[in-house]
Amino acid sequence: MSAVRDFEGLAALVTGGASGIGAAIATQLLARGARVAVLDRETKGAPDGVLALTADVTDDAAVREAVDAAAAEFGALHTVVSNAGIGAIGTVADNADDEWRRVMDINVLGMVRTARHALPHLRAAAVDRPGCVSITQTCSIAATAGLPQRALYSASKGAVLSLTLAMAADHVREGIRVNCVNPGTADTPWVGRLLDQSDDPAAERAALNARQPSGRLVSADEVAAAVLYLASPAAAAVTGTALAVDGGMQGLRLRPA
Ligand code: NAD
Fold first, then answer.
1. What angle do CA 245, 246, 251 make, to 5 degrees?
2. Could you tell which of 13, 14, 15, 19 is best to mutate to test the pocket of ligand 1, judged by most ligand atoms within 8 Å of the CB?
3. Cα distance between the two ends of the chain
């Protein structure tokens, strides 16, 4: 079945689009008619058909250059998906200041830089395509769930949630919508790498599935579908929203029996 081409005529930029959730977003955007640029520090895994731009979101000048290059190539920029991020494990006692700065630099400031450099292009695009211009940020249920052993990661995603709401307020009258998705545990290379560190990855995966209310992880495609909705013209009235894609993990507030 062919996809609805509701992104026809729109130009998109996806950070962290060369793997996992970001690659799924880029693939779905292409299938729905968008022209797509992927900004990633390693673009090897970017889907065929995208404009691949190598940049690290910690490098302000490189982010500006990549964002401007995407807008120049496509003649406009309507859809920004700020998705690049990394994990961090431990309590507050486990990560030193340098590690806090490194993760915050990628997970929070990376999104600030992307938005800062995209905004001039988005403002121009909003005049031509009202309702179709948006920033969607990949947050996490960690922002509000109180997960153990995730102090730094949770704080970084809490900042992404606050940033989403503040940006939505700042830019609503400019016609730029700002939302985020809150994935639960999503089956991506990132989770694969974590499982591979255990003695028995298969048993660890089974235990992880069993801890989900639905009995399974969410897929990268399921998270991407939520991002595509938030960025689509169908969501023209949706801004300042955090959409959970977590198989019920947060909404159901289930506790072990
Ligand atoms: P992933 O590791 O498969 O992909 C992340 C991508 O981001 C990679 O292509 C990587 O190269 C890129 N990236 C990382 N640091 C970068 C930097 N400094 N500059 C440019 N690119 C950079 O991970 P994923 O699971 O697809 O995660 C994507 C997003 O989803 C992240 O923001 C993550 O916090 C969020 N998330 C993931 C899960 C999960 O369970 N997988 C759950 C909640 C939220």
1. 100
2. 19
3. 42
Tell me how far the alpha carbon of residue 18 lies from the centroid of ligand 1, in angstroms: 9
The tokens for 110 are: 């990376």
pLDDT in tens, 5-24: 999 999 999 999 999 999 99
* Ligand 1 shell residues, CB under 6 Å: 16, 18-22, 40-42, 56-58, 83-86, 106, 110, 138, 140, 183, 185-186, 188-191
Answer yes or no: 153 catalytic.
yes
Which residue type is seen at 45?
Answer: G
How much is the ipTM here? 0.99
Exactly one of 30, 153, 178, 226 is catalytic; name it.
153
Distance 16 CA to ligand 1 centre (A): 6
Residue 2 has a pLDDT of 65
Q: What is the pLDDT of residues 37-46, one digit of tens each?
A: 999 999 999 9
Those residues whose C-beta lies under 8 Å from the C-beta of residue 61, and which sit 6 or more positions away, are none
Q: In angstroms, rounded to a whole number, what is the distance separating the alpha carbons of residues 36 and 243?
A: 23
